């Protein structure tokens, strides 16, 4: 359910933002861009979230180059 909520929130959120910008700017291309961007962001968040939960080793974000597991980052 969490993965589905990330995907739906991305599509609805960015699709809605694209729709609002389309109406405000009188264009017709921002809604599809928003939907695709939202779907991509939702997929990215699902992959990132479940990689952390499974403890997949990733590079640290502090710039030291040290590797940490997802469980250590929580």
Task: Walk me through what this model shows.
- There is one protein chain.
- This protein starts with a helix and ends with a helix.
- The model has no long low-confidence stretch (mean pLDDT 84).
- Strand 1 (57-59) and strand 2 form a beta hairpin.
- Helix 1 packs antiparallel against helix 2 (30-54).
- Strands 1-2 form a two-stranded antiparallel ribbon.
- It has a domain at 31-55.
- The chain is mainly alpha-helical and 74 residues long.
- It has three helices and two strands; from the N terminus they run H-H-E-E-H.
- The chain is elongated and about 45 Å long.
- This is AtpZ/AtpI family protein.
- Keywords: Membrane, Transmembrane, Transmembrane helix.
- InterPro entries: ATPase_put.
- The chain crosses the membrane at residues 28-47.
- Pfam families: ATPase_gene1.
Q: Would you kindly provide a brief summary of this structure?
A:
This protein is mostly helical and 74 residues long.
List the helices and strands and how they pair.
Layout: H1 2-25, H2 30-54, E1 57-59, E2 67-69, H3 70-73
Antiparallel strand pairs: 1-2
Helix pairs in contact: 1-2
List keywords for this structure.
mainly alpha, elongated, two-stranded antiparallel ribbon, about 70 residues, single chain
